[in-house]
What we know:
This protein is of the alpha/beta class. It has 2 domains: 1-26, no CATH class; 31-280, 3-Layer(aba) Sandwich (Rossmann fold). It is 40% helix and 22% strand. It is built from 11 helices and 10 strands. It has a 6-stranded mixed β-sheet with strand order 6-7-8-3-9-10, with helices on both faces. Strands 2-1-4-5 form a 4-stranded antiparallel β-sheet, with helices on one face. It starts with a helix and ends with a helix. The relative contact order is 0.16. Bound molecules: adenosine-5'-triphosphate and magnesium ion. Adenosine-5'-triphosphate is lined by residues 48, 53, 71, 73-79.
Amino acid sequence: MNSLNQITEQAREVMRRDTTWPFLVPRKRSVNVSKNVILYLEGLNVSFDGFQALNNLNLYVNDGELRCLIGANGAGKTTLMDVITGKTQCDSGSAWFGQNIDLLAHDEAEIAQLGIGRKFQKPTVFEAHTVFHNLELSLQGAKGVWRALTATLSGSERDRIDEVLEIIGLEKSRHQLAGALSHGQKQWLEIGMLLAAEPRLLLVDEPVAGMTAEESERTAELLTSLAGKHTVIVVEHDMEFVRSIARTVTVLHQGSVLAEGTMDQVQNNRDVIEVYLGEEA
Ligand SMILES: Nc1ncnc2c1ncn2[C@@H]1O[C@H](COP(=O)(O)OP(=O)(O)OP(=O)(O)O)[C@@H](O)[C@H]1O
Ligand SMILES: [Mg+2]
C-alpha cells in the first residue's frame, strides 16, 4: 500500500472511531494535583553545541499560581518553556505535570492536548477572520481535525466563547476582523484562543512587549484574573509589570534558578542585585 493510501485509511479509521465509538477515542488525561504542585522540574539540562542553556534547573510551581520568571537575555527562560511544551528535548532531568504525567514521555502535540497552552511573543491570530471566528477555530481545533472539519458549535461551546470574550474584554469587538485589532487586543485574542480549550497551565512569553501603558495594565488584570482556575507562568522583562502581577518571582541566571521569592525579596537579594537587577541600576 502506498503512503497516501495508508494515510487515507488511517484517516478513515480515526473518523470511524471518532463518530461511531466515541468511547474509544483517547481522552485527555487529567492531571493529578493532589499534592497541590502542578509542575515539577528537576535537574534539567539542555545544551546547544556545548553551550549550557539550562543547567541543572529545579523549579516547582503550585496549582493555580501566577508565577513570574525573570532573568537577563539568554538566561534560559524561553528554553525552559520549550522543554515544558516538548519543543526542545532536554539532555537529562525530569519534568512532571502533576503527580501522574511525565512530560518528557510526550511530544509537543500531546502536551498541548494534556492542557498546557503556550503563548508566543508574536500574536498569531487569523487576521482575515473575525474575533469570534478565531475563537471558534481554536475551540474546534482543540477537539481534533476531524470534528473541526465538520462540526457546528454546540450551545455550551458558544457559551464558552462568550465567557472567553468577556475574560479578554473583547465582547464589543466580536464581529470585527482580527486584523483590525490593536497590537494589545491581538495579544488578548490569542490568550483567549488558548483559554477556549481550558488549559490547566498557561505559559506566556513577554506578553507586554510593544504594548501601550494602558494595554499593559489591562494585561496585568487579565493574567491576574486567570490565576486560581489556571496556573500561569509569565516571562517578562518589564519590571514594573512584573511588580504589578507578581506573587512569587523566580530569577533565572545562566540556566539555573538564582533566587525565588516575592518581588521585594528577589530585588533585595544580593546575588540578584549583582548579576541581574544591578545591571539596570
Ligand atoms: N536552538 C538553539 N540553538 C542554539 N542556541 C540556542 C537555541 N535556543 C537558545 N539558544 C541559546 O540558549 C541561551 C538561552 O536562550 P533563551 O532563548 O532560553 O534565553 P531567554 O532567557 O529566553 O532570553 P531572552 O530574555 O533574550 O528572551 C541563549 O544563549 C541562546 O542563544
Ligand atoms: Mg526568551
